[in-house]
Write a structure and sequence with these properties.
Layout lengths: L1 E2 L3 E2 L15 H5 L9 E6 L2 E6 L1 H9 L4 E2 L1 E5 L3 H10 L9 H13 L6 H12 L2 E2 L9 E2 L2 H8 L4 H14 L11 H16 L3 H12 L4 H11 L5 H14 L4 H7 L4
Parallel strand pairs: 2-4, 3-6, 7-8
Antiparallel strand pairs: 1-5, 3-4
């Protein structure tokens, strides 16, 4: 067993916020005899928790200080971060930002490139910030799961680069809620159709003209009006495709929202 009061968190790939409270299921079904092994690593004179932070938090709240642990010796920090990113502690999946930060830490410490590190590289190139706290961030990209899913698809990274560039050049990225998953997915649908039909240059031109005079709120209003029997994700996608295909003109948006 290990004295959990002597353990450390590596804040390069974990966050204190994540460990302030333990999951409700863990609190409700706590069983000291079935807590399982913590996974730790002894590195640079300290023992770091890789998998088991929530169990440590819950044990401390109960006045329990010794838990069983498997302790690795001198594993690379990149391995720690990768293990953290892929673990499913206490059946509670990591938040997307926690997984993202772990994969970034792994890559920056000698690990292999991943979808997350490639997203980070594109975000830096175009001046975005990948975050779950958009209030004070510059060009915040919040749809981490959606971007990760796209990055793993055929032409996904080129699609992300296309949309990141388009959002900057059209100034779409200055709008509130511009990177919501519904818009990120709709951009990718436009990119794929334009690419497949060999019309990407024209689609890009059409989108540039319209994005510069509209906003996410306008797209929602237009989609709800013209596609009333579909859900929000679908009517956003249909509106973006209509914009790209040339079915909506700049004057349509200007007239519809002239009084705002």
């Amino acid at each position: 067993k290990v004295d959990i009061r002597c353990l450390y968190l590596d804040l390069g790939y974990q966050t204190l916020e994540r460990h302030f409270t333990s999951p409700e299921r863990l609190r409700k079904h706590w069983d000291s005899k079935r807590v399982g092994l913590l996974e730790c690593n002894y590195r640079n004179g300290k023992i770091y928790v890789i998998d088991g932070g929530h169990r440590c938090e819950e044990a401390l709240s109960r006045g329990i200080y010794d838990l069983p642990a498997q302790i690795h010796i001198d594993l690379p920090r990149s391995y720690e971060a990768e293990e953290f990113a892929t673990q499913n502690e206490a059946k509670t999946p990591l938040k997307p930002i926690d997984t993202y930060n772990a994969w970034i830490c792994s890559k920056d410490n000698g690990g292999k490139p991943t979808a997350d590190s490639q997203i980070r590289d594109l975000a830096v190139k175009y001046g975005y910030t990948v975050t779950n706290k958009p209030k004070d961030a510059i060009r915040p990209l919040t749809a981490i799961s959606a971007m990760r899913t796209i990055a793993k698809k055929p032409n996904g990274l080129s699609g992300l680069e296309w949309m990141f560039s388009l959002m900057v050049n059209s100034k779409w990225c200055i709008q509130p809620d511009f990177s919501n998953a519904r818009y990120i997915n709709a951009f990718y649908e436009v990119y794929c159709e334009g690419l497949n039909q060999k019309k990407l240059m024209k689609y890009t031109e059409n989108m540039m003209n319209l994005l510069s005079v509209t906003s996410p709120a306008h797209v929602l209003s237009w989609g709800k009006l013209h596609y009333p029997n579909t859900d929000i994700r679908r009517y956003v996608k249909n509106t973006f495709l209509d914009m790209a295909r040339g079915n909506i003109q700049k004057s349509d948006f200007v007239c519809m929202f002239a009084d705002e």
